From TrEMBL:
InterPro entries: FAD/NAD-bd_sf, FAD/NAD-binding_dom, FAD/NAD-linked_Rdtase_dimer_sf, Pyr_nuc-diS_OxRdtase, Pyr_nucl-diS_OxRdtase_dimer, Pyr_OxRdtase_I_AS. Its cofactor is FAD. This is Pyruvate/2-oxoglutarate dehydrogenase complex dihydrolipoamide dehydrogenase (E3) component. NAD(+) binds at G172, G173, G174, V175, I176, G177, C178, E179, G258. Keywords: Disulfide bond, FAD, Flavoprotein, NAD, NADP, Nucleotide-binding, Oxidoreductase, Pyruvate, Redox-active center. It comes from Polymorphobacter multimanifer. Signal peptide: none annotated. GO terms for molecular function: flavin adenine dinucleotide binding; NAD(P)H dehydrogenase (quinone) activity; oxidoreductase activity, acting on a sulfur group of donors, NAD(P) as acceptor. Disulfide bonds join C50-C55. Residues 334-440 form the Pyridine nucleotide-disulphide oxidoreductase dimerisation domain. Pfam families: Pyr_redox_2, Pyr_redox_dim.
Length: 464
């Protein structure tokens, strides 16, 4: 029998979690399995952005676009079928029944704080020992003249699109803009991508150059460092006018210009929770200005990624339930842009490391010297390892399967390993991962094959 999910069964819990996206699900499921009495409140459907409007549909579209590449024709319908299938397959993992089996009490409704230690939900007042806010973020819509009068898409709506866009205009050259511009181009739409920055402004520019070249080869028209001054035209024939007078016309418009944390309309002021421009302010332990309330994932100031929300959740389970506290630490948080080629980063990029330290060293290995890249006939990209002294500060990988290869690099950065730890590994031949070892062995090889070593070797050969 389906339980009544319209109101809580009790008035007090050990932990109340607001929002059932990646952050809220991991927190509530983990805490309940550890034995805490947990109430999880979700206003819409469990799974959040990642399942319904983010990672899952976008990666399914990317996969369909890979298959469609060079196939010709308009292939959005196939991508739509693929993304619907992916969501249907993953949805049971995030179902209320599964979390109820873990011992979580699930209520569907909108929670609102009424004071520093209480919320209201389903007309009922609920108190808790600790609260976790995991309310996520909305697409940020830029203040462009005329935009309000036109139909436009965001990640909340683009994956429900029924018809193939003839010509998709995209504002924003970040992760969404790059991943989806390439996908729609490969699926057979004309695509124009406009950004007020360079593409992927936070990433290594040399790596971005490799991605940019592929987007152009796929037919994406890219306009970088350009302000969109106004939007006009009509549905089906949208015209963007840039500040320098240029115009771009298309049938559909997608906005991917960053995120706005969800911090209004649910009583954060009444709870005494401080917010800033970047979201809910948290301390080193992810506590808000109200020490009994934690904030995790996209709603707090900090990185907005599913695995960041997951990492936050694990930190908060420990901090909210146990006396041994754990600090938040994003220094080894990996990130991948799932374009083709992929761009993956962990730790500091080369420009970020140079801004902090004057004496870093950078070791780069291009994939055109990797045998597997040659046999796969895909030699785009490189591995770059950024080192301070002996310590690996960061790794940038651009190329095929860069997101997968990054796992090894993440391990090196989070484990505070030295370059020699990577250089001394033996990797299966022929694999792309060998490029990491080849980059890591560059300084050692210079020392190993030096004139001094040559003399030493010769000397040893003369010994009886
Ligand atoms: C197109 C796209 C692709 C992405 N791809 C990736 C990727 O490949 N890898 C990656 O790591 N990240 C990716 N992300 C980012 C990722 O989706 C988010 O960082 C992640 O989903 C955030 O999880 P969250 O739990 O913080 O918030 P959300 O998933 O947004 O969950 C918040 C939940 O809170 C609920 N809620 C809000 N207010 C209330 C309230 N008052 N009461 C009750 N419920 C409430 C909402 O309904 C929602 O379900 C992508 C994002 C987008 C937009
Ligand atoms: N693979 C992944 O992990 C993945 C994929 C998609 C999205 N995401 C997450 O989702 C979030 C949102 O992605 P996003 O691409 O919207 O944000 P983003 O921050 O990655 O990029 C936004 C881009 O829009 C540009 N921009 C901002 N205002 C503009 C304006 N008025 N006109 C033109 N350009 C403008 C910025 O300069 C920037 O290049 C990100 O935080 C990202 O972490 C992650």
């Amino acid at each position: 029998m389906t339980p009544d999910r319209s109101r809580p069964r009790a008035t007090h819990y050990d932990l109340v979690v607001i929002g059932a996206g990646a952050g809220g699900l991991v927190t509530s499921g983990g805490a309940a399995q550890l034995g805490a009495r947990v109430l999880l409140i979700e206003q819409h459907r469990l799974g959040g952005e990642c399942l319904w409007t983010g990672c899952v549909p976008s990666k399914a579209v990317i996969h369909a676009a890979q298959l469609a590449r060079n196939g010709g024709g308009q292939r959005w319908a196939e991508a739509r079928a693929n993304l619907d299938q992916a969501i249907t397959t993953i949805e049971p993992h995030d179902s209320p029944e599964r979390f109820e089996d873990f011992g979580v009490e699930v209520v569907i409704g909108r929670a609102s704080f009424t004071g520093p230690d209480a919320i209201e939900i389903g007309g009922q007042r609920v108190t808790a020992r600790r609260f976790v806010i995991a309310t996520g973020s909305d697409p940020a819509i830029p203040p462009i003249n005329g935009l309000g009068e036109l139909p436009f898409f965001t990640n909340d709506t683009i994956f429900d699109l029924d018809e193939q866009p003839e010509h998709l205009l995209i504002i924003g050259g970040g992760v969404i803009g790059c991943e989806l511009s390439q996908s729609f181009a490969r699926l057979g739409s004309l695509v124009t991508l406009i950004s007020n920055s360079a593409l992927l402004p936070r990433e290594d520019p040399e790596a971005v150059a490799v991605v940019r070249a592929q987007l152009i080869a796929d037919g994406v028209t890219i306009i970088e460092n350009a302000e969109v001054a106004s939007a006009g035209g009509e549905p089906g024939a949208i015209r963007l006018t840039l500040a320098d007078g240029r115009t771009a016309e298309g049938s559909h418009l997608l906005i991917g210009t960053g995120r706005a944390p969800r911090i209004t309309g649910y009583g954060l002021e009444a709870a005494g929770v401080e917010t800033g421009k970047g979201g809910i302010v948290t301390d080193a332990w992810l506590r808000t200005s109200n020490k009994r309330i934690y904030a995790i994932g996209d709603c707090r100031d900090g990185p907005r990624l599913t695995h960041a929300a997951d990492q936050d959740a694990r930190t908060v389970i420990q901090n909210a339930l146990f006396p041994f506290r754990k600090r938040k630490d994003y220094s080894a948080l990996p990130a991948a842009v799932f374009t083709d080629p992929e761009l993956a980063q962990v730790g500091l990029t080369e420009p970020a490391a140079r801004a902090l330290h004057s004496d870093i060293k950078v070791f780069r290995q291009d994939f055109d010297h990797n045998d597997r890249s040659v046999t796969e006939a895909d030699m785009r990209g490189f591995v770059k390892i950024i080192v301070l002294g002996k310590r690996v500060l960061g790794v940038t990988i651009v190329g095929a399967h860069a997101g997968e290869l990054l796992a090894l690099a993440s391990f090196a950065v989070s484990g505070k390993l030295g370059l020699s730890d990577l250089a001394n590994q033996t990797f299966a031949y022929p694999t792309l991962a060998e490029a990491l070892r080849q980059a890591a062995e560059q300084p050692g090889q210079a020392a190993l094959f030096s004139p001094f070593m040559r003399k030493l070797t010769a000397l040893f050969q003369r010994l009886p």
